[in-house]
Design goal:
611 residues, alpha/beta, eight-stranded mixed β-barrel, five-stranded parallel sheet, 23 helices, 51% helix
Length: 611
């Protein structure tokens, strides 16, 4: 066994995570370092494991079924036997409120998923070192007291021993204190030290009306790309270089802290007004954007900054970091490489967004979604040739929620994949029911949208095949709509997936075609059947003659490539006539019908409409 492994020999670590891949990954890297590793899939197993054998450290996932990580930690801290075991939280959630809650329930550290092996090992080592040091201090105190009693008669000798041991204790405490308050990678202040300083500053604002300070929350833009492409060693070197460059912009009373990952926080002390803070932010952005000459390469990066200016409404440091983080995300949404000053409206929006996300999670579990169906009409015959399945959310208190309000949140949180899967299964089942009821003919199809998240899912083909196979639906009745953005993420992998779908006789549409992606050069390589012309072009058809030329080009491109064209958003007979004259194959829009509930579709079909 190597010297490095001996350092960690027999240190027992309990990993609690309901995701097997996470357990395997953490087990592998920790076992290689010589730790003794035990695993638990949920909170109950974790509590039982602690009763059987007290671990030296616990890595605890937050989001688990039945009992989340917060409740597990509370139970551990409430039990005298397990209260001293350090708990490091694991979570894919990167929200400042969740991080703060993790520390409030007794966690000593927080690791964000996806895991970086180096970060995990450093944080584990630090916490075990802190625990060992605390035990060492306890041992020294006991030994010190024993020696004082034994050598009372030899006061001079005992006094010298006492001084030496007190000095050792002081040195150890100072070392422990430094490690507890500083980031091990950059040697900058860490979250704990920053929070202590912010707490002092808040108290000062209560007694000195002229005292002001500011907090800047800085996050590197696209830092993950550097880690993934150049490696984590270069990423760590870059973080150190960023810290050094930022430190040069600080006053002696200011504090620069690394919060974790590529996140930094800056405390600006004794500020006259917000204009000075903006000036510092501009200097930071300029300094960060200058190239970094690292040991093996030159790296360019930018950052987004959120700014909070102190006021009497703040009572806790966590509130300052929360609002600075919110402002930082606002800066990212505005295009990155900029700063944004926090306003109360941002906080209200963040709360609303959080509530919407929570409601979406519940909506998926309780199946509060419904599917509406919009007719797709053949412009040759004027008859309905199919329907597009469109999801709607029947919120228990807010009623029918617009897709424009919840779909972006679902996409950002990854919940869209589960919603898309449910819509696919529901739409296929509905079409099959209509067929069995003889409401529609066998030629009528159903079109279902696939989001980028679902399209990139490893079980995509299995999910799609199960949707039509289980109910014995003819796959030729199923059309899948994929946006250009999903296609362009990985054109080669996309072509393979689309070909496998085509082999199942499923037809494929490129949705929102012509909205700016460069799919034209790849179109001949993709086994698609239909181009859907984005409704933006149809909307301005009468007012903008240039759109007619563009639409004509897309239709001719489709026909030249032996594809069909569908025009979305048709609202009036003038648009319909122009599209027919241009040779467009199919149309869709409010001129024919708005999206309808399943029962209304039956009524529409019964009237045998023809346009």
């Amino acid at each position: 066994m190597t010297t490095s492994q001996n350092r960690y020999y027999q240190k027992d670590i309990l990993i609690v995570d309901d995701t097997l891949d996470n357990l395997r990954f953490l087990d592998t890297i920790l076992t290689k370092k010589g730790y003794s590793v035990r695993k638990a899939l949920d909170g109950t197993m974790a509590l039982t494991a602690c009763k059987n054998l007290l671990p030296d450290l616990i890595l605890l996932d937050i989001m688990m079924p039945e009992m989340d990580g917060y409740n597990v930690c509370r139970l551990l801290k409430a039990n005298q036997a397990t209260s001293k075991v350090p708990v490091i939280f694991l979570s894919a959630i990167d929200d400042i409120l969740d991080k703060i809650k993790a520390f409030e329930v007794g966690g000593v550290d927080y690791i964000t998923k996806p895991f970086q092996a180096e970060e995990v090992l450093i944080r584990v080592e630090n916490q075990l070192a802190l625990k060992a040091a605390e035990q060492k201090i306890l041992s020294l105190n006991i030994e010190l007291e024993r020696k004082v009693k034994e050598r009372t008669l030899q006061l001079e000798i005992a006094n010298q021993d006492l001084k030496r041991e007190l000095w050792e204790r002081k040195q150890l405490e100072e070392k422990l204190l430094y490690r507890a308050l500083h980031d091990p990678l950059t040697n900058l202040a860490n979250r704990t030290l920053l929070m202590e300083r912010l707490d002092e500053a808040l108290k000062l604002t209560k007694i000195e009306s002229n005292y002001h300070f500011a907090v800047l929350f800085l996050d590197c833009d696209r830092f993950k790309v550097i880690n993934d492409s150049l490696g984590h060693l270069i990423g760590d070197e870059l973080l150190i270089a960023i810290g050094n460059r930022l430190q040069n912009l600080m006053k002696d009373t200011d504090i620069l802290a690394r919060l974790g990952g590529d996140e930094f926080a800056i405390f600006l002390d004794k500020i006259a007004d917000i204009s000075y803070v903006k000036l510092v932010a501009d200097k930071i952005l300029k300094a960060i954007s200058a190239p970094f000459q690292l040991s093996r390469t030159e790296v360019f990066i930018t950052a987004s900054i959120g700014i909070v200016f102190s006021n009497s409404n703040y009572n806790k440091p966590q509130e300052l970091l929360r609002d600075a983080d919110t402002a930082m995300y606002k800066a990212k949404s505005q295009g990155k490489s900029r700063y944004c000053v926090f306003t109360y409206s941002m906080y209200q929006k963040a709360l609303k967004l959080l509530q919407l996300e929570n409601d979406l999670n519940r909506a998926i579990e309780l199946q509060e979604f419904i599917v509406y169906y919009q007719p797709i009409v053949s412009l040759t015959t004027g008859k309905i040739s199919g329907f597009e399945a469109l999801v709607r959310w029947q919120h228990p208190t807010h009623g029918l929620v617009s897709p424009a309000e919840f779909i972006p949140v679902a996409e950002e949180t990854g919940l869209i994949a589960a919603i898309d899967t449910w819509v696919l299964q529901t739409a296929c089942r509905q079409l099959r029911n209509w067929q069995e009821q003889k409401v529609i003919g066998e030629e009528i199809s159903i079109s279902v949208n696939l989001s980028v998240k679902l399209f990139s899912h490893p079980n995509l083909l299995e999910t799609i095949n199960r949707a039509w196979c289980d109910i014995q639906l003819n796959p030729q009745n199923l059309k899948l709509e994929i946006t250009e953005s999903a296609i362009m993420e990985d054109i080669q992998a996309t072509a393979v997936i689309l070909q496998q779908l085509r082999e199942s006789k499923i037809e494929l549409s490129i949705d929102d075609f012509g909205t700016g992606y460069s799919s034209l050069s790849y179109l001949h390589r993709l086994p698609v059947n239909i181009l859907k012309i984005d409704q933006y072009f149809i909307r301005n058809l009468e007012q903008n003659p240039k759109n007619i030329a563009l639409i004509s080009t897309i239709i001719n491109l489709a026909h030249t490539s032996e594809l069909r064209a569908i025009a979305e958003g048709i609202k009036n007979p003038v648009q319909l006539k122009k599209l027919r004259n241009l040779g467009c194959d199919f149309g869709q829009g409010y001129f024919f019908s708005k999206p309808l509930a399943a029962k209304s579709v039956v009524d529409l079909l019964a009237s045998t409409p023809q346009w």
